[in-house]
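FIELD: query
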Amino acid sequence: MVNNQFRFTLLFVPNVLYLTERPYTVASVGFTVNPVKRMGRPRLFDEDEVLSKAMELFWSRGYHATSMSDLVAATGLLKGSLYQAFGDKHALFIAALDRYLTCGVVDTQKFLQSFDSPKAAIRELVVRMSQEAAGVSGKRGCLAVGAALEMIPHDVETAERIRRFYESNQQAILGALKRAQSMGEISEGKDLPGLARALVAGILGMRVLGKTGPTARQTKQTAESLLRLLD
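FIELD: result
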């Protein structure tokens, strides 16, 4: 059975899971991170909390529509403190994006491994994504998708992170497909790498179309069509 604690940050779901125990780092799931500037004095604020607030703001407004004044108001730090701790606005955006992407990859990997049946795990993943693509959550969308649409191809740092993020999630799904095939849940003739790409593309499409306000019935129909690829 699935553990209901999983809330995806993937391409996928706009509910962030802040892991209470973090053996994972950005580097451990394939991302390259520019280290945050460290000054001699001890910090008088919680860096994780500041990044969380910055991430929420960039997620809601996008990069270009978020000003440093907005970030000051959201985080409660003075502009000088933000610059000293994280660098400029772009560096803070990258740090917030890294946080989002890392949690997303880890959440997806853990979710897909939490079922006795890998095929059932993939089905449940797609169904949940279709549910999140409808209504209010669908209109908010996904920070990864939003960053890709807004920043690529002009921002190399963002582009590289988004590429690795999607590749990591595709590999997680491919791993589940291979396990399902080895258990006889998926036929031997299936092109598993192609199927993994198709599933990620379908989920991404639902997240983008979620911005247009589809109904739950429409996203459910989309998910059902996508899941027929598994048969």
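FIELD: remark
The chain has ten helices and no strands.
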